Amino acid sequence: MDFRFTEEEEKLRQEVRQFLSQEHVDKFPVELEDEYYGMGAGSPAYSRRLGQKGWLGISWPKEYGGLGRPLMERFILLEELTYHRAPQASHFFNDSVGPSIIRHGTEKQKQAFLPNMSRGELFFCTGLSEPDAGSDMLATKTKATKNGNSYIVSGQKVWISGAHVSHWMLTLARTDPEAPKNRGLSILLVDLKSPGVTVRPITNMASLESFNEVFLDDVRVPQENLLGEENKGLRVVFESLEGDRFWARAGRAPLAKRDLEDLVEYVKETKFCRESLAANQTVRHMLVELAVDIEACRLLTYKVAWLLSNGASLTHEACIVKTFSDLLAHRLANIGLQILGPYAEPNSDSRWSALQKRMTRMYAFSPGYLIAGGTVEIQKQTIAMRGLGLGTPPSR
After folding, report:
1. Taking the domain 126-230, which CATH number applies?
2. Which CATH superfamily hosts domain 7-92?
3. pTM over 0.85
4. Phi-psi category of 310—alpha, beta or left, where left has phi over 0 and alpha has psi -120 to 50?
5. Ramachandran category for residue 186: left, alpha or beta (phi over 0 → left; psi -120 to 50 → alpha)
6. Averages of pLDDT over each 10 residues, the chain, 396 residues
7. Do 126-230 and 7-92 have the same topology in CATH?
8. Which of 30, 71, 296, 390 has its Cα between 20 and 30 A from that of 92?
């Protein structure tokens, strides 16, 4: 196998690195704190700066504001931005919604949304989960009732990342309550400024507001905002989720590599009971195990990026990346706190205060990694069915 990137791909990597050296991320205001998924913090100003470079729609068609570049270049861009902890959360869900609009949207929808998204002037969130419909989207209860040239939408969405700083929401709703559960669902593009929409932030265990509840009370959505065919929205959702599962974790390996480098530097400079932490066998072994896992995660990610760049459809490969990378993040946070020990509590007087804060917050976030985007258990079922050919498990 040839693991080398092409000359054009390496040229882009160097261009991104030069940009990052000139456009320091610290000078851009942040609206969303980093959740340590790999997308960084949320900064609309930084997203607009990336949009000026054409990088937000780097692989989108030129006629819709993109650059029309190969998909692998999108991956390289993400890899470099993530390693340097650039804030990407504001535009992140555009990466999954945009391709859905390109594949399933009308020409009017493409012209209305994609150019603004590629410039960083319009941000989407995805409204899929509900109080009783998380991993089981067939249990969706949000209703969309036809009324003339509109749908009247009522229901509640929950755990919606970034809804309070987004403009629009890709929304799963039931348009035919009499149809089988997998055939009566549709996708609507909902303007979050519409009358009847209420967005309520949820404070998480890290004392941050990044998730939200979204209440839809008789919200009127024009019929022209139906994405794809009516009652056939599940296909659009699954495609969007495959993108979310991969692209939301595609930055995990470079992010973890950067964290590992910081931990290695920390143990080299820190002593405990007059002994260098770098000489402690337990600490050394923990760091080595992380290094091995990070390399494995990187190669798994490269494989999926290569499949996508060659036009292949994903069945279970994104689930493998998601499962491995989320478990890696969970271990990284745990090991990071073990190594930092009593110094893990953020201390503004220490040169390691940023690392202390990072590991403490990552640890608070880490249980959510195993749930968000579909639980680890659900991912394993998908891998068993589609990857190992074990079929659907019998109902209990």
Report:
1. 2.40.110.10
2. Acyl-CoA dehydrogenase/oxidase, N-terminal domain (1.10.540.10)
3. yes
4. alpha
5. beta
6. 84 96 89 80 94 95 95 94 93 89 96 96 94 84 96 96 93 94 93 97 82 96 96 85 78 95 94 85 96 96 90 86 93 93 66 86 86 86 91 68
7. no
8. 296
